[in-house]
What we know:
The chain is of the alpha/beta class and 353 residues long. Helix content is 19%, strand content 33%. The longest helix has 11 residues, at 118-128.
Amino acid sequence: xxxxxxxLILKTGEVFYGQAPASxxxxxxxxxxxxxxxxxxxxxxxxxxYAGQILTFTYPLIGNYGASGSFxxxxxxxxxxxxxxxELASFYSSHSAEQSLAAWLLQHQxxxxxxxxxxxxxxRLRTQGVIAGAITPLNQKPAKFENFSDTDWVKKVSIKEPxxxxxxxxxxxxxxCGMKENIIRCLSQYPLRIKxxxxxxxxTKEDFDAVFISNGPGxxxxxxxxxSILKKAMMQKKPMFGICLGTQLxxxxxxxxxxxxxxxxxxxxxxxxxxxxQRCYLTSQNHSYAVDEATLPSDWRINFRNLNDNSVEGIxxxxxxxxxxxxxxxxxxxxxxxxxxxxxxxxxxxxxx
Length: 353
């Protein structure tokens, strides 16, 4: 594959040089973020939570095990606006690999730039916070940068029509705000009938036993339709479990506030402590926003905290069966230390027999 000189231009003026495919023309915009994971690049690239973002992989060599089939995908397509790597592996080795990562990116029309000093770029993002940027050919400047926080990304990635999984007696409504497929796999391990619904689908007059709220991209404040539905659902006091964006939406539904983290949490080894047991878990994370604990109502408590920056990683109601975690217990990629949270959700459902 022929590579030509290219550049990443940040809105703040910095330029990082590298190479891009000769066939990659024009400018590609996104919010530049970084992920420190060593593996799991296909899962990350197909995670809807990355919609609108240019994903920087900090690990120096990406693509050494190639790209496999859709079993490892977290949605039906890639959602990133672009990819930045230090070195894109020329050769790959894996029993399940079907093609190189470079070929996979080209096949799915995902713009990328390689040969970038990702260490310097990451240090810049950690200092400045996430920055809008553009991948362009050398000597080509973008006309303007978009404000990605103004876009309702959940509306872009949520499913359009309900989907049914399983045939159990207990019915779970799973709100798709950009849901990863491994969440459905984890929920499907239990004898449940799961109805996966769009982000703005009002299910509150239907027969259901529990509610799940998924991960998703962007600023949660845009999800006013989902927040309104959650307020009505909470009045029924049925089990409710949220992951990632689901935590933020649950908090907003009870009157709390959220805020944007400087550079977010995107890695597979974020340490979080369960404040009830004092046990620490390594967690997989991918989010830009967090709950402002000072705004939580008095009948809610924090049950998980990030040990790197002390931010809120989990909330639960003191009386009703509502709880949520900011990290990803379903992993994909990452450690599965906290998959027991799905069992906790199922146990809450069974208790209501």
